[in-house]
Amino acid sequence: MKNPSLGEFEELVLLVVAAQHDQAYGVSILEDLEEKLSKKLNISAVHVALKRMEDKGFVKSRFGGITSERGGRRKKFYIITAFGKQMLDQQYALRTSIYQQIPNISFG
Hints:
The chain has four helices and three strands, in the order H-E-H-H-E-E-H. By secondary structure, the protein is an alpha+beta fold. The chain has a single domain, classed as Orthogonal Bundle (Arc Repressor Mutant, subunit A). Helix 1 crosses helix 2 (26-37). It is globular.
């Protein structure tokens, strides 16, 4: 089986899941990303990324309790797995090593 990869948007979603720890759910992730990226995103894109990452083993999910404010629906919370953290660490190391190869160029 091919090693699972982590796309750019998935990486951003996974970073937010890790930062929100045990309180990450679709809307909270969406709002955090929209704030940080200063642009509107589609909740469906977040849910698709979460589903893909759960299939790859980067996150695990659990359902919260039923609340009347949500019309009896439960929130689905996500946490990063050890494998997901390992993938983030690999991405960070790769990006840092490439960044460090940029020569010290003066643009002034």
